[in-house]
């Protein structure tokens, strides 16, 4: 499995994931540094921040944006499990909190991946997010701006959930 990331806050959360998973997870890696075909991994944990608010796509403002639209479309991810995480500011941007996670969901499921690790919207204060599917977040959302004291426990709980959902960790 590989954890892909770029951005200081997302890197912090990726570090928490790595701490919990240990050697079971390669990385965290910047998406631009991942060599070879991602379809070769048993599973993926992919994270992105949300910047450039208001855009319909390319929400993260990082290298993952072009990767999602230039590289990922050639990948066959049928049968692969993917877990998504993101960082955002639910107080300052509560109308588009962690929208990039919803974009990741759309891009990965379009390639045949199965997204695991949906989480509750409870204990968050936002009014809209493109990361919501069937009243759940389609991954782990962390607010390192306003709820940084909750991120480590959220990660630990989420990783246990991922194991239970069959992500090889």
Estimated share of beta-strand residues: 15-25%
Outline type: globular
Low-confidence stretches: 1-8
**Helix-strand pattern, N to C?**
EHEEHEHEEEEH
- Mean pLDDT, all residues: 85
Q: What can be said about the biggest beta sheet?
A: 6 strands, parallel
Work out the radius of gyration: 14 Å
What structural class do helix, strand and pairing data support? Answer: alpha/beta
Question: Treating each run of at least 4 consecutive H or I residues as one helix, how many helices?
Answer: 4
What is the β-strand count?
A: 8
- Helical content, roughly? 25-40%
Q: What distance lies between the first and last C-alpha atoms, to the nearest angstrom?
A: 7 Å
Characterise the protein shown here.
The protein is α/β, with parallel strands linked by helices and 169 residues long. Helices cover 30% and strands 18% of the residues. The protein is built from 4 helices and 8 strands, in the order βαββαβαββββα. It has helices spanning 8-21, 63-70, 99-110, 148-164; strands spanning 2-4, 26-29, 43-49, 81-87, 114-116, 132-133, 136-137, 140-142. Strands 1, 2, 3, 4, 5 and 8 form a 6-stranded parallel sheet that branches. Strand 3 (43-49), helix 2 and strand 4 form a beta-alpha-beta unit. Helix 1 packs across helix 4. The protein starts with a strand and ends in a 5-residue tail after the last helix.
């Amino acid at each position: 499995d590989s954890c892909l990331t770029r951005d200081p806050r997302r890197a912090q959360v990726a570090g928490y994931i790595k701490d919990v998973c240990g050697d079971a997870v390669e990385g965290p890696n910047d998406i631009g540094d991942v060599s070879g075909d991602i379809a070769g991994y048993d599973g993926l944990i992919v994270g992105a921040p949300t910047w450039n608010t208001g855009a319909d796509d390319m929400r993260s403002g990082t290298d993952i944006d072009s990767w999602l639209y230039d590289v990922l479309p050639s990948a066959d991810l049928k049968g692969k499990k993917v877990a998504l995480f993101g960082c955002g500011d639910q107080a300052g941007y509560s109308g588009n909190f962690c929208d990039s996670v919803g974009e990741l969901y759309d891009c990965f499921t379009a390639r045949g991946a199965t997204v695991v690790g949906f989480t509750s919207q409870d204990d968050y204060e936002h009014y809209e997010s493109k990361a919501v599917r069937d009243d759940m977040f389609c991954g782990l959302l962390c607010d390192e701006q306003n709820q940084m004291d909750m991120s480590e426990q959220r990660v630990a709980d989420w990783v246990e959930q991922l194991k239970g959902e069959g992500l090889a960790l």
